[in-house]
Design brief:
Glycoprotein, Type 4 Pilin, Lipoprotein, single chain, globular
């Protein structure tokens, strides 16, 4: 029983750290998208691999440094190893979305999902995923 008492707080702290890491990552990615646009470049496709390619591989100006997990896969993944999804809203925003700890995207209630967004500089035409 003592082992369980000591082990439970460690799991709780690990879960909190993963959530904070993902919140930071989603926020940083949306900031990088805004910076990318301000440099005169345009996000042309909302596929995770395409956004990763544009922000990390091809961009001379934006110096987004992805987490090691993302670098090894060539896509943006959250702290739990699930790929992020990207959407364009009706309000002309790009949304970066993590499914959270449970790995289930729940748009109606968000649950443990983590979302970040940035407004597009212009009414761009973007291919949806």
């Amino acid at each position: 029983m003592k082992n369980l008492i000591y082990f439970a707080p460690i799991l709780l702290l690990a879960g909190c750290a993963a959530k904070k890491e993902t919140q930071s990552q989603v926020s940083t990615i949306t900031f990088a998208i805004a910076d990318y646009q301000q440099s005169g470049s345009k996000i042309t496709n909302l596929e995770n691999e395409e956004i990763y390619q544009q922000l990390v591989v091809e961009s001379d100006r934006v110096k987004y440094k992805p987490y090691e997990r993302s670098k090894s896969e060539g896509i943006f993944v959250d702290a739990w190893g699930s790929p992020l999804r990207f959407f364009k809203s009706d309000q002309n925003q790009i949304i970066a979305w993590s499914a959270g700890k449970d790995g289930i995207f729940e748009p109606q209630k968000l649950g443990d999902d983590i979302v970040g967004m940035t407004t597009l500089a212009t009414k761009e035409s973007i291919k949806a995923e």
